[in-house]
Prior knowledge:
Elements: E1 27-30, H1 34-45, E2 50-53, H2 57-64, H3 75-81, E3 86-89, H4 92-96, E4 101-104, H5 119-131, E5 137-142, H6 150-165, E6 170-175, H7 185-190, E7 194-198, H8 202-217, E8 236-240, H9 242-273, H10 277-285, H11 306-319, H12 325-349, E9 356-360, H13 375-385, E10 389-393, H14 398-404, E11 411-412, H15 416-420, E12 425-428, H16 433-436, H17 440-445, E13 451-454, H18 461-466, E14 470-472
Parallel strand pairs: 1-2, 1-4, 2-3, 4-5, 5-6, 7-8, 9-10, 9-12, 10-11, 12-13, 13-14
Bound molecules: nicotinamide-adenine-dinucleotide and uridine-5'-diphosphate-glucose.
Uridine-5'-diphosphate-glucose binds near residues 179, 180 and 309.
Family: Belongs to the UDP-glucose/GDP-mannose dehydrogenase family.
EC number: 1.1.1.22
Keywords: NAD, Oxidoreductase
Amino acid sequence: xxxxxxxxxxxxxxxxxxxxxxxxxxxxxxxxxxxxxxxxxxxxxxxxxxxxxxxxxxxxxxxxxxxxxxxxxxxxxxxxxxxxxxxxxxxxxxxxxxxxxxxxxxxxxxxxxxxxxxxxxxxxxxxxxxxxxxxxxxxxxxxxxxxxxxxxxxxxxxxxxxxxxxxxxxxxxxxxxxxxxxxxxxxxxxxxxxxxxxxxxxxxxxxxxxxxxxxxxxxxxxxxxxxxxxxxxxxxxxxxxxxxxxxxxxxxxxxxxxxxxxxxxxxxxxxxxxxxxxxxxxxxxxxxxxxxxxxxxxxxxxxxxxxxxxxxxxxxxxxxxxxxxxxxxxxxxxxxxxxxxxxxxxxxxxxxxxxxxxxxxxxxxxxxxxxxxxxxxxxxxxxxxxxxxxxxxxxxxxxxxxxxxxxxxxxxxxxxxxxxxxxxxxxxxxxxxxxxxxxxxxxxxxxxxxxxxxxxxxxxxxxxxxxxxxxxxxxx
Length: 476
Ligand SMILES: NC(=O)c1ccc[n+]([C@@H]2O[C@H](COP(=O)([O-])OP(=O)(O)OC[C@H]3O[C@@H](n4cnc5c(N)ncnc54)[C@H](O)[C@@H]3O)[C@@H](O)[C@H]2O)c1
Ligand SMILES: O=c1ccn([C@@H]2O[C@H](COP(=O)(O)OP(=O)(O)O[C@H]3O[C@H](CO)[C@@H](O)[C@H](O)[C@H]3O)[C@@H](O)[C@H]2O)c(=O)[nH]1
């Protein structure tokens, strides 16, 4: 099979790099999870032929059959629209054979001690090197969130295997951390604030510029349902060294987690002094140095990234005998926030044991089916430990949660009405839009005691209070 060389397009007048209309011959993405799948669908949409590799056979079979396997707005449409451009396979070695760019997007879950488990990244590196051919030229890109030094480790694994095989391939390396949010994954991939590339290799930088030019230049026609945001400046390609790029990712997530914990800490004070945290956040956010984002008080942060990345950053620091007290405090405040939710329920109901508590929202936020580190599921487990009966509901992830926690002794209720009828309290853990427009007066009138703990400050507080509901928000 012919090995395509990296193309050398004429420099584009604005980027100085690749011409927008120059697709790569093949991009291979390893890991078809939230990051890999969304990235692959977008790159295929931009015109690059994409091979998506995953070791999970069932996942690959489902993707081949047209099942999107994760819940993400717009993904089913984009995957079906890009079918002709996309191949799904479990065969990593074959999948990299003709690739110009190979993107590692496998998971890096936390180990028991909190540091990131990079074994899947190293396994991918090993198999990449086993698949590369004599004379092949390619760029290996680490998109997974990885601790300091992992990019270097990927290079050394690939060098070692190529050497052992006696294969002469010209491999370039870059770190390219991902900043997409679940539920907004396609939007964030098409319209990022910045693209960070960590590499000291001009060839790697040039290939990534070529890969991302349509995004950097915003030259593509937006896919249906994913309009270009108004007045958003063009994304910046920030080129830096690999170690700084690795740290940009962790420091960004830690900073956002600190910001949420900060507003949750202020929310606790608001409850004491009678202020409204939404108003405090609104006033703070008007200062452009602070910014309005990530100041939504609530049950605390969860998800597949913040909890693990906050721990991983501390683990990196600990390796160097350094501490990160602000980052550590963000985690402590997050735990306290959950405990505070339970205290408030207990204060309202006096006794939790034997009470019927409805918990609405099992995913860690709306717009995703991801249950990793979900505040709602954490609160459910704490309620069960305290002897409460739980009725759980989620508009998209009910069966997923049930499958994940088959031993939890609770009612998985298929409707909000069923969850609230006869309940002693309801806790809103995830602000799914489906919940916000319900007839809350009617729903709460079906409850045995009308206690509402709005963990996302999303329900009609005044309306409920006026109707005699014991409504509690967060920080107001
Ligand atoms: N989920 C997010 O919103 C997000 C955003 C930015 C960055 N990240 C980071 O990106 C990485 C991937 O996250 P994710 O949420 O997409 O993970 P995920 O768990 O959803 O998907 C990872 C996929 O990789 C596959 N895989 C694992 N090892 C493999 C191997 N050796 N070969 C082939 N496939 C393999 C798994 O089967 C799985 O399908 C992580 O490092 C994460 O921290 C995630
Ligand atoms: O004002 C806020 C904003 C968020 N959250 C919570 O914070 C968590 C994370 O939310 P969000 O950041 O929207 O979701 P993720 O999809 O986890 O995205 C984060 O983690 C990704 C993985 O690293 C990064 O790529 C993204 O940039 C980063 O925002 C969720 O539990 C939210 O409910 C709040 O409580 N208040």
